[in-house]
Design a protein that fits this description.
The chain contains 12 helices and 14 strands. It has helices at about 15-40, 60-65, 75-85, 85-90, 105-115, 130-140, 170-185, 195-210, 235-240, 290-300, 310-325, 330-340; strands spanning about 40-50, 95-100, 120-125, 145, 160-165, 185-190, 215-220, 245-250, 270-275, 280, 345, 350, 365-370, 375. The strands form 4 sheets. A 5-stranded parallel beta sheet has the order 2-1-3-4-5, sandwiched between helices. A 4-stranded parallel beta sheet has the order 7-6-8-9, covered by helices on one side. The chain has a 3-stranded antiparallel beta sheet with strand order 10-13-14, with helices on one face. α7 (about 170-185) crosses α8. The chain is globular.
Length: about 400
């Protein structure tokens, strides 16, 4: 706690007894502030990130692929914790954030164990799916997943103390499917990249397409290659010929092909998925519910626009602060229970909390073309017997998570 001292410009002009009394009061005030700082309950958190992160390569960051991270996720955490300082001080609590990096799954596991031994109460991860699971299995602490959207972390590979701030892949595909239904763009052409991650994401997209009654007219693979014999696999005109469709859904985790697709299809049709129209956790041009103020505070602190992953880390910081205020001297089990029950303001117009069946943060999705936000999902008119937010992602009856049943 900062202590401000007010003294006259010329202390020598005061009587000696008054000067001594003022100095004593200042000393007592300083000691009181120091005692308050020392006695504050501390919730320690450690962020584990990958070494040599390919997503942060200069070339990729400069290209600013929509939906991809634009900088370190620690930026969002720091902004959230700075904003929460007044509330934390009023509750006599502190959140202390440390960081560690890992170059392998074994190193990530070791970093988690070391953080737990050093007193960490919560771990935060910006790691691939397998690494995230290794961290969650290595400790008995709550783990907040900031960036991995894989559905299996919420389904068959879920963990009881694993919470997800970033939307799942199914949430993203459900948001797009709802908009397609609302626009009556029912017939879809699906273009899928060549790597395993794209294949898994395509399966998720097809699940959303079936769930919402859309029609998949064709699914075609694409591939960026320097081999002249494979040139046709990256030609948008050839890939989008031969079918009648209302929209093209492209699955491209890398982003290089997808960004070239809009306005290059044979039929004049919208592109959705990883280009054209995307479903995101956040966009810096969102203009409702206090979002512009959040985006400006982040941009001022980080010197860059706020991306979806930054919003997820900002929400993680808010969750840490809420936990520290509600249970300043808890145990890992208490903190996990507190995290599961917090209600957070994400500047999206509704209170947000974690689903009990998979640890996913309920949230609205922003549908953006890169210039602004054109809609929010759940789309108006979509109904659910409990919470409309549960129309995005796996609902309770669909859950495959054994750890939370």
């Amino acid at each position: 706690m900062r202590t401000t001292r007010f003294l006259p410009r010329s202390a020598g002009a005061l009587p000696a007894w008054l000067h001594t009394a003022l100095c004593a009061l200042c000393a007592l005030s300083t000691l009181g502030a120091a005692a308050t700082t020392v006695s504050a309950a501390q919730l320690r958190a450690t962020l584990i990130t990958p070494e040599d992160d390919r997503r942060m390569e200069r070339r990729r960051v400069e290209r600013a692929y929509l939906g991809h991270p634009g900088g370190p996720l620690a930026d969002g955490l720091r902004v959230a914790l700075d904003e929460a300082q007044f509330e934390l001080e009023a509750a006599g609590s502190q959140v202390l954030l440390a960081s560690a990096s890992a170059g392998s799954i074994e190193a990530a596991r070791a970093a988690a164990v070391a953080a737990e031994k050093n007193g960490a109460a919560v771990l935060l991860t910006d790691l691939p799916a397998e690494w995230t699971l290794a961290v969650a299995d290595a400790v008995k602490l709550p783990v907040l997943n900031l960036s991995e959207p894989s559905d299996r972390l919420r389904q068959q590979d879920c963990r009881a103390r694993l919470f997800h701030l970033i939307p799942s892949e199914r949430m993203r595909s459900d948001a797009l499917a709802q908009l397609l239904v609302a626009r009556k763009w029912n017939k879809l052409l699906l273009l899928v990249g060549a790597n395993a991650q794209d294949a898994a994401r395509a399966a998720t997209a097809q699940a959303s397409i079936r769930h919402h009654g859309l029609q998949l007219v064709a699914s075609k693979p694409f591939k960026l290659s320097a081999d002249p014999r494979e040139r046709d696999l990256a030609n948008p005109l050839l890939l989008t010929a031969g079918s009648s469709y209302d929209a093209v859904w492209v699955i491209d985790s890398d982003g290089e092909f997808a960004r070239t697709l809009p306005y290059r299809t044979v039929l004049p049709r919208p592109v959705v998925g990883d280009a054209g129209l995307l479903a995101l956790a956040w966009h810096a041009q969102f203009e409702r519910y206090g979002a512009p103020q959040v985006a400006r505070r982040f941009a001022k602190a980080a010197k860059r626009p706020m991306q979806a992953q930054d919003w997820a880390s900002w929400m993680a910081g808010k969750a840490l602060a809420a936990t520290a205020v509600a249970a300043p001297k808890g145990t890992p089990a208490v903190w996990a229970q507190t995290l599961a029950q917090v209600t957070l303001d994400g500047s999206k117009g509704v209170g947000l909390g974690f689903r009990p069946w998979d640890g996913q943060l309920r949230q609205t999705m922003l549908l953006s073309d890169g210039q602004g936000v054109i809609a929010q999902a759940p789309i108006e008119g979509v109904l659910h017997p409990g919470n409309a937010l549960d129309t995005l992602g796996a609902d309770a009856p669909e859950t495959l998570c054994p750890a939370r049943r």
